[in-house]
Design brief:
Elements: H1 11-61, H2 63-68, E1 72-73, E2 80-81, H3 84-115, H4 118-133, H5 136-155, H6 163-187, H7 191-199, H8 204-215, H9 217-233, H10 236-241, H11 258-266, H12 274-306
Antiparallel strand pairs: 1-2
Helix pairs in contact: 1-12, 3-6, 3-9, 4-6, 5-6, 6-9, 7-8, 9-12, 11-12
Length: about 300
């Protein structure tokens, strides 16, 4: 029999409890490790599949003709697969949405985390969460019914389905991601940072933007990346308000983005055809764009933190 300690628990029982706790910790650690490996496996599988499926069409068409070609006629007798209009439309639409959505999202996040009263912040956060839960097709439907006719009337166009309509819809759609993630990052900034800044004579507004935002820069960068990822990858809402025409982009012209090009043609592209392979190549280009954006933003954040 094992000896008992002051609380009446034998050494044997204590050893068993310790072994049990260690076993539980090892099991949980294994589960976490497995989840991490699964996530990495998904990323690798998607990457490998896109590369394997997308490279053949680029080789057949030619890299220059595919990336820098200005004409897309995938079903013509003499098919052409130039995706430069799709690339530029995606870039312009994403940049426009970011220019509009990021400042609004950041200012809203600062207001929620630092300025608003608890009751007001709770109401606004619920509204933002509701905005995040709206399906993208609803954004497209509202944009098609309200925004497109308004643009058509305002600029006296024959059709209001334009790049401008796509930019406005995308700017609204990326707001929840930017607001929620930035709000969480700002709330995690230690209060001591603010107290030190205020003690040195800075105003509250200066503290919010020069101290809190800088301290939460990694979280803000993640919010922007999420917003850009949703903007550049959105298809359903954009196909309803952009006109879905393979034009070189113009603010008041109907356009087609990388994502809408895939959605609009994949359903009738024949298996094994060059058209279907080219659509996989479009997906590969879209994937590479998102990866490049992530790398650039991470480099900028790292450089900013070092300085």
């Amino acid at each position: 029999m094992g000896t008992q300690n002051e609380k009446g628990v034998s050494d044997t029982d204590a050893l068993k409890d310790k072994r049990h706790s260690r076993t539980v910790e090892n099991v949980i650690h294994g589960i976490f490790l497995a989840c991490g490996v699964i996530v990495i496996g998904f990323v690798l599988a998607i990457s490998i599949y896109l590369v394997v499926s997308g490279i053949p069409a680029i080789v057949k068409i030619g890299f220059g003709k595919f990336i820098f070609g200005t004409e897309w006629a995938s079903t013509a007798a003499d098919p052409k697969f130039g995706i430069l209009p799709f690339i530029l439309s995606s870039v312009y639409g994403t940049c426009g949405a970011v220019i509009i959505g990021v400042p609004i999202g950041l200012f809203t996040a600062v207001f929620l985390a630092k300025v608003a009263s608890p009751k007001a912040a709770k109401v606004i956060r619920e509204a933002v969460n509701l905005l995040a839960g709206i399906p993208s097709v609803i954004y497209g439907l509202v944009g098609m019914i309200v925004l497109v006719p308004a643009i058509q009337k305002m600029f006296k166009l024959s059709n209001g389905s334009t790049l401008l309509a796509a930019i406005v819809v995308l700017a609204i759609m990326i707001l929840p991601s930017i607001i929620n993630v930035s709000d969480t990052a700002l709330q995690a900034v230690p209060r001591e940072y603010e107290e030190g800044s205020l003690a040195l004579g800075a105003t509250e507004i200066e503290t919010y933007f020069k101290v809190d935002l800088k301290a939460a820069s990694s979280g803000v960068a993640a919010a922007i990346v999420l917003g850009i990822g949703r903007a550049i990858g959105e298809a359903m809402a954009i196909i309803m308000v952009s006109g879905n025409v393979a034009n070189m982009p113009g603010l008041l012209k109907p356009v087609r983005t990388l994502s809408t090009a895939i959605v609009s043609e994949m359903s009738y592209a024949a298996y094994g055809s060059l058209q279907r392979e080219a659509l996989f190549s479009v997906g590969l280009v879209l994937f590479v764009f998102i990866m490049i954006i992530n790398v650039i933003l991470n480099m900028l954040i790292k450089r900013g933190s070092e300085s």
